[in-house]
Amino acid sequence: MIKQNIFLLLIFTISLTLVDAQNLVNRFDKDGKRQGFWTKNYYQTDQKRYEGVFKHGKEIDTFKYYRLNKGLSVLSAIKVFNEKDSISDVVFYASNKKVISKGQMNGKRFIGKWLFYHKNSNQVMTIENYNSEGELEGEKTVFFKNGDLAEESFYANGKLEGLYKWFAEDGVLLKQSMYKNGQLNGLTINYDGEGKKLSEGPYTNDTKSGIWKYYENGELKKEIDHTNQKILKRYD
């Protein structure tokens, strides 16, 4: 009889402990704001959607976010929040746990410097910079998987601005253009795989304009006025 009572008391204690633990999850403060540790599953599943800690409705510390992959939750992002503002340090993950990208966000906007990685690799693929409005600002660089430069460009308020360069994987410059307000404006030069000129001339608002020169094996062969599409001169 004594053993039976002890067993029933143990079961009762465990039940109370489980109830108390459940009460510590997904709570609200006196103002109806989320407070403490929260976790949510995808609708009508037992698969986790996110988990993290709130302080009077504000995310603080580390949050983990998940996406469904073949019906199972896999980690897709980790955001580390502070208590002062809505800025967080963010890392996005692929299904195989490789890092896709990392940087800072203000709410849903990318801000500051962001790094993007080649698929299934620790090698940086792209470096981008964002302003406080979440628009590309300043230099953007793209790299081949071997680490060599593939593209170099500049942005102002989310639009291409200034010199844009493309490179082959062996480092040869293939193209350079000038942009203004997101459109091709100014001189563009195209090169072949050996670095010899193929063509050069100006653009105006994404359209070829003025006199363009065309080359073969690095030698000038013809000039065309693209304002009226007239061949001005041919070279033998």
UniProtKB/TrEMBL annotation:
InterPro entries in alphabetical order: MORN_2
Pfam families registered for this protein in UniProt: MORN_2
Origin: domain of life: Bacteria
SUPFAM superfamilies: Histone H3 K4-specific methyltransferase SET7/9 N-terminal domain
Name under which the protein is recorded: Toxin-antitoxin system YwqK family antitoxin
Organism listed in the record: Winogradskyella pelagia
